[in-house]
Structure formats: structure tokens, C-alpha cells
Amino acid sequence: MDDLRAKFFTLISQASDEQSLEDLRVQAVGKKGEISLQMRELGKMTAEERQVAGPKLNALKDEINAALAAKKAALSDAALDERLRTEWLDVTLPARERRQGTVHPISQVTEEVTAIFADMGFAVAEGPQIESDWYNFDALNIPAEHPTRTEMDTFYMHREAGDNRPPHVLRTHTSPVQIRSMEKHGAPIRIIAPGRVYRADYDQTHTPMFHQLEGLAIDRDLSMANLKWCLEEFCRAFFEVEQVELRFRASHFPFTEPSAEVDLRCSWDGGRLKVGEGDDWMEILGSGMVHPKVLSAGGIDPEEWQGFAFGMGIDRLAMLKYGMPDLRAFFDSDLRWLKHYGFAALDCRHCRAD
Ligand code: PHE
Asked: Is the pLDDT of residue 354 over 50?
């Protein structure tokens, strides 16, 4: 028995993987293992001999099983250590230089714009791209006979003949998110809503799908002055210039009163846009004070609350800031274009506050 113990303890301590341990287990305590064979010998012994040898053999069997288990645990610890050593990863290393993918200018500009407004305390809101015509039009005080409702501009979802329920549309602007935010949170509100919108249009500066950024601020005493400050701050940060000059031009939107389109002073010297100087004006957005009927439609009392809203084209901002001449190329998925105009991951200049 002492020989058996010494032999198996040596073999177990030398085993280098789980398979050889298993082989040893079979060899020692398996059905036809050496210790099991010894146990069969017990039958041939006298009762006195058996009383001595039986417990000893059983103890040896337990000892060997315990040694096998201990060795197995040690082996798997060692395997884990080895795995941790080889799979160790330094997450502080810089990104690979030969990057494969790039961030699309639309994503980049959306991040930039969001970061700037987040700094001013605006939260991000969202709404569906397939919208009921109530949210897209009626609630925004857009009358039934308004020209944008015609099939010319608006994509209507298919309806079976005889289905007289109100139609759904691909939202034509992000303004329906104004109503959804009012319904969801009530006043006061300070949100922006970036997202996709759709209009039947296609030329150098129009694609049937494009991106807008809606802004909405509602409180007890907000005025056009607050709107103007916010937009000036935004333009300064976005175009990265000290001085900007905005021109508020009287306009009309059914959902704001008064309404203004906003132009930015700029120059186009040698085809390069310069913001803040020059004799040109570039229209960048629509805005105004939220119409009382729109507040009511969103469940907010216009006697108590007022606010401003604005809507701008994200794609257009991207074209201006990064000098891309044709909007259609944005959505062609041409790898050469994406490599040329795309951004490296984490290259977000305005994310200073994370
Ligand atoms: N929804 C308008 C558009 O798409 C923009 C806008 C938004 C104007 C909010 C005023 C206020 O042209």
C-alpha cells in the first residue's frame, strides 16, 4: 500500500494537464484500477486481516481522490493565470493608426451640436420617424390645406383602399418632437431633438432623407432675446469663431408667432466659407416663439408658459463647416468619400465636458 501511495502521489504531482489526471484516476481508482483490484483481494483474506487492510485501502482511495482533486484545481488555476497573462490588454494604448472605419460627418456634427447645447442645459429628446399626421401637422397648427401636406412634399404611408383612418407620414421635420416632449414632461422644458426627416426633394442641396435638429425651451418668461443669445452662443461654438453676427428676418411658420429665419454673416472668399465677417448672409435656421395653439395641443397652458423653438438642418451645417459641396454624396456610401470626409473615432472637439 505504501508503494501504491508513493507511486500515485508522484504521478499526480507530475501530471501537466487534465487529461493525464483523468488517465491516472482510471489507473488508480477506476473499476479496474490498481486500488480497486487490491480491494477485490480483500475477499480472499481472513476476517482479521480484512479488518486491518479494508480501512487502510479505503483511506488510501480517499487520499488519492483528494490529491487528484487538489491537482485538478491547481491546474485550472494555472490555466486561468496563463489566460489572464496572454489576454491582458492595455486599454490606455492609443487607437490604431491604420483605422478602418470613420465617423460619418452627420454623426460627427450631430455629436458636436448636441455637446454644445448640452453645455447650455438642453437634454436630448427623440420621436418616431413614422409619425401620425396629427403630430406632424395638426398639433403644430398646420392647417389642412397647407401646401406642405400635399403628396408633392410629404411621403404618406400606404393605406388599403377604404381605410379612412388618419394617415401616417414620414415626418417632414423634427417639430413633432416638440409636441411629444410637452406631452411627456410638461413645462418647463429645455430639449433638442436631432433626427432624420423626409421630403420629396432631390438636387445638389436636397435629399429625400436628411437630418434636422429641433430646439425647444419653455418657461414662464422666455423671450426672443433668450432665443437670440442661445443661437449666437451656438454659432460661436460650432463655427469656432470669436464673433458671430446673426440677422433675424421676419418669416412665417404656422407653429411659431412671431417667426424668424436666421441668417449668419459670412464671406465666401475663394470658395472658402468664413463666418463672422464679410458681406454675405447665409440662412441657417427657422425659429420663433412657440404658438399658443401649439402649447395647448401639447397640454401646456399658454396663459402661464411661453417659449421659443428653432429648427436647423444638420446636413447643411456639416456641408458649411467641413466644405462638402454636394449633399447627395452624403448618402451614397462611397468608401472614397467616407475615407476623405470621415472623422476619427473620439475626434469630438466639443466634448470637453464628456
Ligand atoms: N420645422 C421647421 C422646418 O422644418 C423649422 C422650425 C422649427 C421653425 C421650429 C420654427 C420653429 O422648416
From this structure: no
